[in-house]
Specification:
By secondary structure, the chain is mainly α. The protein contains 15 helices and no strands.
Length: about 400
Amino acid sequence: MQKQVFWLGLGLFVAWMGVSLAQAKSWIATPSPALERSLSQLPQTPYTPLEWATLDELERLELLAVQTQMLNPPRTARALALLSVAANDTLAALAQRPGADANVAVAAAAREVMLYLHPTFPNFKDAVRGAARDFYQAAAQAGASPQSLLASSETGRQIGMQVVAFARKDGANRQVIPEYPKAAPGVWELTLGYTAVEPGWGNLVPIGISNAQLARATPPPAWDSPEFAQDRAAFWQKQQQLTDRDKAIADKWAGDGGTVTPAGLWQEAVVAMLKDRQVGAEGAVAVLTPLNIAMHNAFIACWRDKFAYYVARPNQWVKTLDPKWAPYLRTPKFPAYPSGHSTISGAAATVLSALLPDAAATFAAMAKEASDSRIGAGIHWFLDGSGGLDLGERVGQQVLEAGGVVHAGN
């Protein structure tokens, strides 16, 4: 098992209430001589907390890169998770120490992670370096001492380097050529001339737990079973009754390359909610970090099971009924079960409902809408959605347990 993740705790909820935030604990970074050296250089001056302006700019830059480079949904979720962990672990290392400037430190950590994530994007790399420099200079103009600035920046750099070191070994850049099963009814077929999307993603190292411990989807029913026959009939009936609202929801959650993808949609919605509730930036990091970790881990679990069950997409079956039919949205190049949108949304709703329990109904409705959107889009069976939501809920619970997050009433 990876390094144990410690208590995040009830302070997440009281932070929303406008009280104090319990000290964050690290997900990836660990003490090192270099990190301890930089922390020891902090002067005895007031702590400068993280501000929303810093968090907003870092999120803006990363989502811009995601869209410009057309990262696919699993890679986007990974990027957001690594960036959140860098911010979280930096705040944990600083622990509101006198002399620390959290804006300078978090920006330095994020710089290292984003430069790693987007190595072939020169303009973006310049923007990331420029943002970190701007936060450094703004702190200097506000009266921070050179000693505080140097120590804060080096602390963030050390944390960022540790997160990057983890990422370099998580398997995201490992090429995998799957052995596809023989063609048969109900077995997914890759269109000739195309490559599957991230067939090895299920082998990645999750954050907070090991791959072997990661929750697994409930096996789907057999293709020739009455249960799957009923599901196919329900899908076809739905396709004959698509409404404008169904199509609008499908478009809303589509999240293809060139967008912020589903993980980005969840993050944007939660950021807006936290700001509306006047949660501070450090409290927001404490919410966004387990959220993004859960979505990243959920994609790993989902992709592992997609390429284990190889369930056919609806278009393969419908062409035997109506060769002229086409799904509302383009069918992705990977197997159907379980649904990726459903899995990450189930994970997101589970984590967020534990951290912000008064909004649990809102998160559950968002997850259900995201799941249903793929059925209306014509690219998933109903059972893909229900199986994904169930898997995501269990992945989300694993993240909560790994972080020691407790419900506000417990």
